[in-house]
Amino acid sequence: MTTTLQSRKTSCPATVPRPVFIYGTLCAKPLLAWALTGSAAHVDQITVLISPAKALNVARYSVHGCDYPAAIKKQGSYVTGYLLQPQTLS
Questions:
Q1: Which residues belong to any copy of the Gamma-glutamylcyclotransferase AIG2-like domain (predicted)?
Q2: Which residues are paired to 60 by β-bridges?
Q3: Which of 3, 65, 69, 86 could, after both became Cys, cross-link 24 (CB 3.0–4.6 A)?
Q4: pLDDT, tens digit, for every residue of 8-22?
Q5: How is the chain split into domains, by residue range?
Q6: Would you say domain 18-84 falls under CATH 3.60.15.10?
Q7: For residue range 41-50, what is the model confidence (pLDDT) as tens digits?
Q8: pLDDT given for residue 82 in this prediction
């Protein structure tokens, strides 16, 4: 199942962990595991925290001279990635 995301504004204080949309380079699970745990070998620990997702009305573009993409608003487009649901605020 893929979660579909649309941008929304909220003024809620951060008292519970909020989901984070991950796309591009961070969709490589070993890299995401390294970023979150400090070890690329911990893919099993992060797999339970992510689910497939789609961000609507944005398009993915390469950034000249950079190793990472950018997501820019574009009506009718979408970017696929993961929805990361952290377990803590830190």
A1: 20-85
A2: 71
A3: 69
A4: 555 666 678 899 999
A5: 18-84
A6: no
A7: 999 999 999 9
A8: 97
